[in-house]
């Protein structure tokens, strides 16, 4: 009886012990297209530029675990006027303490909007919302998509924006 009990305990231990996971499937996050470069000449492209690299950050937490890595990655896609603006910060990166701008993603994005975005993005979105019309041959889903996009940029309009819907 004792021998059967020992056998049973051995089988039970084997059943609940961790198995060799070398054959388990490996989860790989899907690859996301790198952002298009942003040169600072078209304010209308800034929001899309920021959204494209934010998707990459959300998809790959392991590689983008610090704000500094996120900001430096984002900087690698700045060209033209925008590239010249960030050049000053990057040229001093190895000789002095890191700039506050290179360690703060929110501050970096705010600075991009200040320098290269629309001077009054909220007012521009309000005007576009006032002028938004659904074309006779248009699809409702496109109109709703445009409406929601503009509404998200109007700041605190809240329920008042639905007057335009």
From TrEMBL:
Region named Disordered: 1-23
Domain DUF4939: 11-120
Source organism, top-level taxon: Eukaryota
Segments of skewed composition (Polar residues): 1-16
Protein name according to UniProt: DUF4939 domain-containing protein
